[in-house]
């Protein structure tokens, strides 16, 4: 099988989806249930705690996060219900979704292990910077910004699932890398359209690579992730390093100069490291 362009590969993806031979990634059930209940606003801390308690791993991680420097208060947290009460429903909904995301980055073969690990580590980095950057846009939720960073390259997962069985990509790391970079935003849109996320988050996976993106008067989650992404690849050989950041409106929307080194801003580096350790 030969593909003459990225579009021909995207057409192949659609054919596989239509024939039910490819399944788009879905969030774990527990994340969907908790997020839906939290977003309704009428779920009690006890009800959310009972849902979360059905997953021992997430329960342990949530209590750990509630006691982490990012969220801890004067007293320690030792139950899920106490964690929910301290953090609040909206934060818990975003956090459980973020913590559950890691389950989606588990490869089904050793061949893909390197790619999945690399994408997950990159996503953690962008996510951690996104959470810190949300401080420059008080109208945005920092934990939703963190989640936005985790989902920004979700479109790469089904590409890997398909390309593993296509020799021209499987046997050529350089071609695989090019395909991942050029096709993931289009497939990310397909995935996000299938998830019950607010539009503000859905746009991230497809729009963060549009460096002419113009949200509105105020910064949105695409702006935050776009700046976080550009900061995360600075100094590397990534093609996007050639982007003229002075023309990327997202910096100005966040009140930042285009040549800003975000990690050099007082307090930002510490926040990024704390978020990174929480997600790792």
Automatic annotation (TrEMBL):
<protein>
    <submittedName>
        <fullName>Putative signal transduction protein</fullName>
    </submittedName>
</protein>
<feature type="domain" description="HDOD">
    <location>
        <begin position="24"/>
        <end position="211"/>
    </location>
</feature>
<dbReference type="InterPro" id="IPR052340">
    <property type="entry name" value="RNase_Y/CdgJ"/>
</dbReference>
<dbReference type="Pfam" id="PF08668">
    <property type="entry name" value="HDOD"/>
</dbReference>
<dbReference type="InterPro" id="IPR013976">
    <property type="entry name" value="HDOD"/>
</dbReference>
<dbReference type="InterPro" id="IPR003607">
    <property type="entry name" value="HD/PDEase_dom"/>
</dbReference>
């Amino acid at each position: 099988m030969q593909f003459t362009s990225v579009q021909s590969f995207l057409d192949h993806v659609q054919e596989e989806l239509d024939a039910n031979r490819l399944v788009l990634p879905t969030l774990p059930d527990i994340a969907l249930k908790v997020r839906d209940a939290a977003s309704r606003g009428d779920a009690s801390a006890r009800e959310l705690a009972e849902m979360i308690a059905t997953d021992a791993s997430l329960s342990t991680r949530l209590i750990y996060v509630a006691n982490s420097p990012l969220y801890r208060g004067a007293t320690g947290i030792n139950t899920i219900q106490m964690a929910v009460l301290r953090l609040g429903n909206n934060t818990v909904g975003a956090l459980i979704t973020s913590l559950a995301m890691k389950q989606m980055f588990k490869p089904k073969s050793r061949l893909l292990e390197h790619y999945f690990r690399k994408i997950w580590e990159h996503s953690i980095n962008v996510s951690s910077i996104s959470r810190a950057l949300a401080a420059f846009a008080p109208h945005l939720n920092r934990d939703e910004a963190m989640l936005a960073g985790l989902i920004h390259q979700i479109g790469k997962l089904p590409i890997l699932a398909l390309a593993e069985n296509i020799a021209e990509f499987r046997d050529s790391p350089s071609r695989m890398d090019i395909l991942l970079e050029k096709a993931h935003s289009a497939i990310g849109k397909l995935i996000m359209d299938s998830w019950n996320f607010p539009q503000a988050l859905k746009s991230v996976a497809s729009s963060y690579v549009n460096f002419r993106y113009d949200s509105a008067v105020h910064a949105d989650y695409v702006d935050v992730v776009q700046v976080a992404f550009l900061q995360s690849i600075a100094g590397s050989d990534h093609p996007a390093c050639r982007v003229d950041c002075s023309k990327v409106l997202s910096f100005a929307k966040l009140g930042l100069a285009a040549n800003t080194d975000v990690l050099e801003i007082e307090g930002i580096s510490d926040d990024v490291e704390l978020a990174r350790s929480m997600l790792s």
